[in-house]
Amino acid sequence: MIEKLFRLIKSRLEDLYLTLVKLGWVNNHHMRLKDLDELTKLAIPYFCEKLDITLTKTYLMKNFAKLRRIVEISREELIL
Question: What's this model's pTM, rounded to 2 decimal places?
Answer without folding.
Answer: 0.60
